Amino acid sequence: MSNSANNLDDKSILSEAGADLGLYARVFRVMLGATGLAVAVSVLFAPWRVTTGLLIGGLLSLINHHWLQSSVSAVVALSVGGEKPKLNLATFILRYLVIAAVAFLAYELRIASLPALLAGLCSFVLALFAEAVREMYFVIIKREEIT
Fold this sequence. Notes:
Blueprint: H1 10-45, H2 48-80, H3 89-108, H4 114-121, H5 123-141
Helix pairs in contact: 1-2, 1-5, 2-3, 2-4
């Protein structure tokens, strides 16, 4: 409770944001690895539309994750500097529109399977599960809290 919103100083917020860079990097690496593994396996065993769907969905997921992380980092940096963040809601909606448009176009041009596109987009979920398992390992097995 010592880190409530009223008694945090700017330095502790910045140090916590710096600690989260490792989290973002780990999640991004797991997403990249999961997408690569899924595409490699589907090349061997699945039709080409499934492979391209996994590839396009995984790439869209990676782009979405990077875009969201950079947007949130910009807002946090502005709020720490004392300025009021001027993030427009349209930028968040634009992300989803771009992703939906690319997925729709890939499906309509018949170069990707819709279930494979959705599975590729779910690489973020797999990365979150991997991070949860990592944290459980450190908390339960090593009896320490991740900072």
